[in-house]
Amino acid sequence: MINISNLSYAFGTGSSRTPVFSGLSMNVQRGEFISVVGGSGCGKSTLFKIIAGLLEPDNGRITLNGAESATAAKRLGSVAYMPQQDLLLPWRTVMDNCLLPWELKRSRPKAAAVAEIRTLLQRFGLEGTEGAYPQELSGGMRQRVAVLRTVAAGNDLLLLDEPFGALDAITKRSLQRWLLELWAELDKTVLFITHDLEEALLLSDRIYLMTGSGGGMQEFPAGLPRPRHHSLNYQPQFAALRQELELKLYENRRS
Amino acid sequence: MRTAAPRSLLQHYGPASLLALLTLAVWETVARLGLVPPFILPAPSAVCKALLEERRLLFGVHLPATLLEVLTGFALSVVCGCLLGIAMHLFSPLAKALYPLLIISQTVPLIALSPLFIMWFGYTLWSKVAVVFLTAFFPVVIGTYDGLSKNTDAYRELLLTYGANRWQILGKVGVPLALPSFFSGLKLSAVYCVIGATIGEWLGGSQGLGYFSRRMAGNLQSAKMFAAVVLLSVLGILLFLAVAALEKIILKKRGRYS
Ligand SMILES: Nc1ncnc2c1ncn2[C@@H]1O[C@H](COP(=O)(O)OP(=O)(O)O)[C@@H](O)[C@H]1O
Ligand SMILES: [Mg+2]
C-alpha cells in the first residue's frame, strides 16, 4: 500500500534547522491497521503531513500504491487525512460536512454521494444527526463524524492523527470498541497515531515506535489474533505485551 | 413560548422606548411653554405638522432623490469594496500598498473635498454619489479584507488533502468565515450612506432631503428642517435594519455559530 524509505525532515531554514526525524522507514500492506506511537513532539503529525502531501521531505522516498511520487503535492487528494482537531465546519450540518470531499471532486452524481453517507451514518451509529450542526453534538459524536468524513473522501489509505486524543477516558473506551468493530467491515488501510499504548495494542496489527530527537522508527509486532474483543484488555498476554512496549519506548527515550 | 415573546420584546426595547418618550415629552413641554423660541427648537408636534404639510414635496420629490443617491452609492460601495477587499486578500503587495491609502482617504475632511466633486461632476447625481461612495466604501473594504484575513491554515491543509485548489478553499472556508466581519462592515456602510448623501446635497443641487433641510434652516423654518432630518434618520435606520435582516437570514442558514 505504502512504502517509506529513509525519510528525513527538518523544520526551519539555514543553520537553525532542527531535525525532526531521519532515516525513517516503514512498510504498510493493504488492509493493515498500523499504529504509530511516540512521545509528544517526536514528529508523528509531521510524518502524516508528509505522507498526505502537505510537507515536502528533505530526503527519502515514498511509494504509494506501487508508484513513487515525484513531489509531495502529487499525493494531495489521494490519501485521506484526519488532522488532530476534528475541523468540522461549524456552519455546515453533519451531512454537508461529510459531503465536503465530494463537493471538491464531483466525480459522481450527488445522489450517490448522499446515499453512501446515509449508509455510513447508519453504520457509524449516527442516525438522526444528519441535519444537526457540529456544536450540537457530543465530543465523541463529533469525532465519529470526522472519521466518517475521512472515510467518505473515498481513498483506501486513512491517516488518523490522534482521533481520540482529546476525549475523556470513558468516551475514549467506547470509541475504541466502536472502531474495533467498524474496522472489521471497513476494508481500508489505516495509519493511526496515538500515545495510548493500550489503544495501539488493542487496535493494530503492527506498531511503529517513533524514537524522536532526530532518530527513525522501530517496528513492534503486536500480533494479537483477530477477531478481537475489547475484553482483551484484561488478559495476561495483553499486559505482557504492554509492558514490553513500554520498556522499548523508555529505552529509546534514554538513548 | 407565546407569552414569553412580548415580555422579552419589552425587556429588549422597553428602556430605550421609555427614554425616547420621556425626552419627547420634556421637549414638547419646554417648547409649548415658550421657554425656547420655535425657530431654535420647534416642538415635536410642530415637526409632525410640518411633515404632514410638506408631505407632497418631501415624499414626492426629495425622499426619492436622496434614496436614489443613497442606493446608487451603496451599491457601488458594496461592489467596489468587496472586489477590492478580495483583491487585497489575494495579492498581499496590493494590500500593503492600499491599506495606508485607504486609511488616509478616511481622514481627509470630506466637506473640504466636496467642491472638487462639484467641479468634476457638476450639480448631477454623480457628485453626490461620489461623496456617498467615499464615506461608505471604507467599512466594506475593511470588513471584507479583515474577514478574509482570519487564520484558516488548519482548514486550508484539510481541504488541500481532499485535492482542493486555491479558489475552492476561498469559497468553502474563506468566504463563510469572513461573512460576520463583512456584514459588520456592511451595516456601518448602510448608515454612512445617508450621512454621505446629506453632505453631498448640502454642497449644491436642487433636490434631496439634505438640500431641503438646509434651505429650510436658511429660512428659519426649523420645524420643516427637522421634518427632513427625521426622514433622513428613519431612512438610515431602515437601511441598517434591512442589512441586519439579510445578515440574520444568511447566517442562520449556516448554523448558530455567531
Ligand atoms: N511549523 C513548524 N515549524 C517549526 N517547528 C515545528 C512546526 N511544527 C512542528 N514543529 C516541531 O516539530 C516537532 C514535531 O512536531 P509534531 O509532528 O507535531 O509532533 P507530534 O505530533 O509527534 O506531537 C516538534 O518539536 C515541534 O515543535
Ligand atoms: Mg501531533
Map the helices and strands:
The complex is a heterodimer of chains A (255) and B (258).
Chain A: E1 2-11, E2 18-28, E3 33-37, H1 44-52, E4 59-64, E5 67-68, E6 80-82, H2 94-105, H3 110-123, H4 139-152, E7 157-161, H5 169-186, E8 189-194, H6 197-203, E9 206-210, E10 217-221, H7 236-254
Parallel strand pairs in A: 3-8, 3-9, 6-7, 7-8
Antiparallel strand pairs in A: 1-2, 1-4, 4-5, 9-10
Chain B: H1 4-32, H2 44-53, H3 55-90, H4 92-107, H5 110-121, H6 125-148, H7 153-161, H8 166-202, H9 209-218, H10 222-253
Helix pairs in contact in B: 2-10, 3-4, 3-6, 3-8, 3-9, 5-6, 6-8, 8-9, 8-10, 9-10
Adenosine-5'-diphosphate is lined by residues 11, 20, 38, 40-46 of chain A.
What would you say about this model in short?
The complex is a heterodimer of chains A (255) and B (258). By secondary structure, chain A is an alpha/beta fold.
Features:
heterodimer, A: Rossmann fold, 6-stranded mixed beta sheet, 10 strands, 36% helix, B: 258 residues, mainly alpha, MetI-like fold, 0% strand, binds adenosine-5'-diphosphate, binds magnesium ion
Overview of the structural elements:
Chain B: The chain crosses the membrane at residues 61-86, 98-123, 129-148, 186-205, 225-246. Chain B: Its main location: membrane. Chain B: It holds the Pfam family BPD_transp_1. Chain B: Belongs to the binding-protein-dependent transport system permease family. The complex is a heterodimer of chains A (255) and B (258). With 255 residues, chain A is of the alpha/beta class. Chain A folds into two domains: 2-79 and 156-254, P-loop containing nucleotide triphosphate hydrolases (Rossmann fold), CATH 3.40.50; 87-154, no CATH class. Chain A has seven helices and ten strands. Chain A has helices at residues 44-52, 94-105, 110-123, 139-152, 169-186, 197-203, 236-254; strands at residues 2-11, 18-28, 33-37, 59-64, 67-68, 80-82, 157-161, 189-194, 206-210, 217-221. In chain A, the strands form two sheets. Chain A has a six-stranded mixed beta sheet, sandwiched between helices. Chain A has a four-stranded antiparallel beta sheet with strand order 2-1-4-5, with no helix packed on it. In chain A, a hairpin with a 6-residue loop joins β1 and β2. The longest helix of chain A is centred in the last third of the chain and has 19 residues, at 236-254. Chain B has 258 residues and is an all-alpha fold. Chain B has a single domain (42-253), classed as MetI-like (MetI-like fold), CATH 1.10.3720.10. Chain B has helices at residues 4-32, 44-53, 55-90, 92-107, 110-121, 125-148, 153-161, 166-202, 209-218, 222-253. Chain B is globular, with a radius of gyration of 23 Å. The chains are: A alpha/beta (255), B mainly alpha (258). At the A-B interface, α2 of A face α7 and α8 of B. Bound molecules: adenosine-5'-diphosphate and magnesium ion (MG). Magnesium ion is lined by residues 44-45, 84 of chain A.
